[in-house]
Amino acid sequence: MAMNVTEAIATLIFFSGMGPMPWTINSEIYPMWARSTGVSVATATNWIFNLFISMTFLTLTEVLTRYGMLHILLVCSTAGVITITISNVEKLIREIVLESISCTKFS
Question: In this structure, are residues 72 and 65 in contact, taking their beta carbons and an 8 Å threshold?
Fold first, then answer.
């Protein structure tokens, strides 16, 4: 019974969200010749940052309080979202410009 509840919670929180996305995307975006190196670097980066957060979280929570730590995480997450959004907008604009150039060139 307890295992079923744990599986249901894991499914609702982790599996239905963005949790497995880095592992799924990493196995798909690299060409075959670079896949092992790319996944290895991504996994090492993941583990290094997880270690860094694990080693500093409790100390920072004591120094900054829970609310201060929440604000730091909020700022980091917002900065990441803004960076990704700007990057994707640039790519979208570049694709639109290239598409309009190719359409006018062949018309």
Answer: no
Q: Report, in this order, helix, strand and coil percent for the chain, each rounded to 5.
A: 90, 0, 10
**Residue 102: which pLDDT band, with cuts at 50, 70 and 90?**
low
In whole angstroms, give the CA distance from residue 36 to residue 30.
9
**Residue appearing with tokens 């969200």:** 17
Which residue in the block uniquely carries the two structure tokens 């980066």? 45
Domain ranges of the chain: 31-106
Write the pLDDT tens digit of every residue in 1-53: 666 777 777 777 666 556 667 777 777 888 888 888 888 888 898 889 889 88
The neighbour count for residue 35, using CB atoms within 10 Å, is 14
For the record, the structure tokens of 6 come out as 């744990």
